[in-house]
Amino acid sequence: MLFMHRYRIQSDRKVAICSVHPSEQATLQCLGCVKAKIPVAKSYHCSPKCFSDAWQHHRVLHDRAASAINENGNEEEELFGRFNSSGSGGINTSLSGSASSASLTNGSTPLYPAAVTQRSGGETWFEVGRSKTYTPSADDIGHVLKFECVVVDAETKLPVGHSNTLLTSRVIPAPSPTPRRLISVSGLDAMAPLDSDGRISSSGTFTVLSYNILSDVYATNDTYSYCPSWALSWPYRRQNLLREIVGYRADIVCLQEVQSDHYEEFFAPELDKHGYQALYKRKTNEVYNVNTHTIDGCATFFRRDRFSHVKKYEVEFNKAAQSLTDALVPSAQRKTALNRLVKDNVALIVVLDAKFSNQGADNPGKRQLLCVANTHINVHQDLKDVKLWQVLTLLKGLEKIAASADIPMLVCGDFNSVPGSAPHSLLAMGKVDQLHPDLVVDPLGILRPHSKLTHQLPLVSAYSSFARVGVGLGSDQQRRRMDATTNEPLFTNCTRDFIGTLDYIFYTADSLTVESLLELLDEESLRKDTALPSPEWSSDHIALLAEFRCKPRPRR
Questions:
Q1: Beta strand pairing status for 512-518 and 544-550?
Q2: SS3 19
Q3: SS3 for 292?
Q4: Where is the Endonuclease/exonuclease/phosphatase domain (predicted)?
Q5: pLDDT at 196
Q6: Which of 4, 155, 254, 274 has minimal CB crowding within 10 Å?
Q7: Residue 499: CA atoms inside 13 Å, Cβ hemisphere, count?
Q8: Which residue, 1, 384, 272, is CA-closest to 155?
Q9: CA–CA separation, 420 vs 440, rounded Å?
Q10: Is residue 155 packed enough to be buried (19+ CB in 10 Å), middle (13-18) or exposed (0-12)?
């Protein structure tokens, strides 16, 4: 049988970790943080330049700490325990040797009683676990962990052969992204209260999350060289993404770029533990024919205690492309046309039945259905005609559903289209101006006549509500994070090469109203280099979340 030991190796020389570059050892400490009782792990920096570059964001910590003390008279405790420290004001630049030892003593209780097993060369090994798995604790921060495994004879209980050991790098603090609040836009214009489960305290409403989580197959070190490799690894990102998604407590979750194996092996079973039922539509296979496991797609989850599943529609734009070319393109040109149109993008449409109602006494027992579309439109910027055609195809499908049932609709996803583009105009305005510059790109003639580029769904972008809400707490700050021309967020995708809005939640304004929205991020809320993904945020997109209320239907 196997016998396993896990140890924490503690050096007589304690090590502080940089709060900005957690793989680097700290050389200075902001004593203003110590004085303000900010969690001490956030006070360390690896160099004066690191501290200077991070100051704009770091200063926010001081402001929030001062505000919290003024409002509450106290401050929140650090999630992973508070380190002992001393000093006041300024910067402490002497963290080497014994000078840093006192400030790095962690008082939290270890999972196992500490037992000194060996001491040599200025190092002490403390046993911290004997199980097959081990989650580092607060006491482990700054230290190396050692895993030791040995085969033991079941009868004699004696070791057989040599033990195998594995050493980790130094344990770093878990990144702590700035919490995002829900901002009311229904007229109260205040931070939306949360109940004990973390959900908005409002009956008859529901929340919808849309999030492109960045598929692992696209998260390469070449593309995102600015993100530490450990923070880009899937084992890290999946846990960070799950923690973020579960933390929003949304009733409906629309994810894009979900790999099929990650859906089956991770997201579906993990979110099932939190009460979600899962539905999935993966991209079609024409392009991704090497490894079927790396095919990504759209996944929609809903809380079983809030909704039940009625129907599912799958939209494969490849099939629509085949039908289009068969009907409109001469046979000699069909191969060329299909090469342009076939891009494997899909949409997942789900009809749900709400287990709650706000229809009032006039309509007792009336079913409240809801249609939710989740899509990921083609990314290539030189295929403007294909993007617009895919959005039009989706909307025409939704129009057919709307014609057969009086049902509120949500259209969520990554549309890979900036505000003001033809696809965005079609969604938000119901039509595309015939002089729109995007219409110039139409080599197949699939967008002609331009008069057909319309739909009858009364769609409105949820986040445009920030532009319409009155002046007050929270909304002013959010308006500064909006584009005044388009009434859309300044960005939902933020990399070194691109910053702009690609993601949206649209709703039918004749049947739904927006109650509150998840606050937008600004550059200070990200990292000093304002690029995603990062250790704090594990996708290059940000999540959007809106709370809706169904409008009561008139009696018929």
A1: antiparallel
A2: coil
A3: helix
A4: 209-541
A5: 40
A6: 155
A7: 17
A8: 1
A9: 15
A10: exposed
- Return the pLDDT at 469: 67
Which residues are CB-contacts of 313 (< 8 A; sequence separation ≥ 6)?
Answer: 348, 349, 350, 351, 397, 401
Best CA proximity match to 544, nearest among 459, 431, 465, 457: 465
Task: Give the whole-angstrom CA distance, residue 401 versus residue 117.
Answer: 68
Cβ-contact 341, 389 below 8 angstroms: yes
Q: What are the percentages of helix, strand and coil residues in the chain, rounded to 5? A: 25, 30, 45
3-state secondary structure of 10: strand
152 Cα distance to chain centroid: 45
Q: What is the pLDDT of residue 52?
A: 84
Residue in 344, 292, 336, 348 with CA at minimum distance from that of residue 317: 344
Q: Which of 511, 334, 341 has its CA nearest to residue 409?
A: 511
Q: Assess contact for 531 and 496: CB atoms under 8 A.
A: yes
What's the order of all strands across the beta sheet hosting 28-30?
44-45, 28-30, 91-92
Q: Where are the beta strands (DSSP E) in 193-275?
A: 205-212, 252-259
The per-residue DSSP string of 110-131 comes to: PSS---EEEEETTEEEEEEE-S
Could you tell me if 348 and 374 are in contact, meaning their C-beta atoms sit under 8 angstroms apart? yes
DSSP letter for each residue of 460-528: EEGGGHHHHSPSSTTHHHHHTTEETTTTEES-SEE-SS-EE--EEEEEETTTEEEEEEEPPP-GGGS-T
Question: What are residue 342's phi and psi, to 5 degrees?
Answer: -80, 105
Residue 535's SS3 state is: coil
Let me know: does 537 contact 177? Beta carbons within 8 Å. Answer: yes
The rounded distance, in Å, linking the Cα atoms of 283 and 493 is 21
Percentage, residues of the chain above pLDDT 90: 52
CA distance to 9, 12, 112, 163, 254, per residue, from 120 (Å): 11, 11, 22, 19, 54
Q: Which residues of the chain have pLDDT under 50?
A: 73-90, 94, 96-116, 188-201, 286-289, 361, 471, 528-529
**Token pair belonging to 201:** 């305290």
The token duo for 370 is: 């809801």
Q: What are phi and psi of 162, to 5 degrees?
A: -85, 155
Give the gyration radius of the chain's Cα atoms. 27
Task: Enter the pTM of the model.
Answer: 0.78
3-state secondary structure 381-416: CCCHHHHHHHHHHHHHHHHHHHHHCCCCEEEEEECC
Closest CA to 357 of 462, 251, 206: 206
Residue 522 and residue 537: Cα distance in Å, rounded?
13
3-state DSSP call for residue 361? coil
Residue listed under structure tokens 């920030």: 466
